[in-house]
Amino acid sequence: FGGASGGTPLSDLWSMQWEGEVAVWTEVEVAGPGPRYGFFDAVDEVHGRWFLFGGGQPGVPGNPVNPSSETWVLDMRADPLRVDSTPATTGPYFSTIWSYAAVPIRPSSV
To answer: What confidence tens digit (pLDDT) does each residue in 42-83 have?
Structure first.
């Protein structure tokens, strides 16, 4: 998902499947976050979810990075795929100088 090409943030999402020893890429159509780069993400393999936090968005006057503090969750088991978001005010403010760790947690009934 995302990234930048020629300085322009992207919002495309791709899926990769192995066919023998060849990687086959398919673009995934799903409504989700706008174009961004430099975000943090993690996968919850137990529940089939992909989490995306923050990232730089297309610049605005006076703010070329235009950081986002949104959190998005892609439900990879839903058919069709579903994306949910949380308001930007419910978590930490996005910074380009920080780190995170994805720590597996035990399954829950959620």
So the answer is: 888 888 888 888 888 888 888 877 888 788 888 888 888 788
pTM, two decimals, is: 0.68
φ, ψ dihedrals at 74, nearest 5° = -100, 120
Residue 44, C-beta contacts closer than 8 angstroms, at least 6 positions apart: 50, 51
CA dihedral for 46, 47, 50, 52, sign (positive or negative): negative
**Nearest Cα to 55, choosing from 34, 73, 40, 33?**
40
First to last CA, the chain: 26
Residue 69's identity, in one-letter code, is S
Coil/strand/helix, residue 88: helix
Is the CB of residue 68 less than 8 Å from the CB of residue 77?
Answer: no
Residue indicated by tokens 């979810």 = 49
The C-alpha atoms of residue 10 and residue 110 are separated, in whole angstroms, by 32
Return d(Cα 51, Cα 54) in angstroms, integer: 10
- The token duo for 40 is 């943090």
